[in-house]
Amino acid sequence: MKNVFQFFVQVRQELGKVVWPSSNELIGSVIVVLILVCAFSIYLGALDLFFYRVAERVF
Hints:
Layout: H1 2-17, H2 23-58
């Protein structure tokens, strides 16, 4: 039980060292991630459609 308590004390100490991003940095990062997810989704959808059409003609 002592080890568990010590673990949580150390976790709290380590979390005190974390530098959290500001709200502007967080919003900017979220926007970049959403744009990249949309771009890759469109890219993978186009590839899927292309290979579907190719497979349709072959088989």
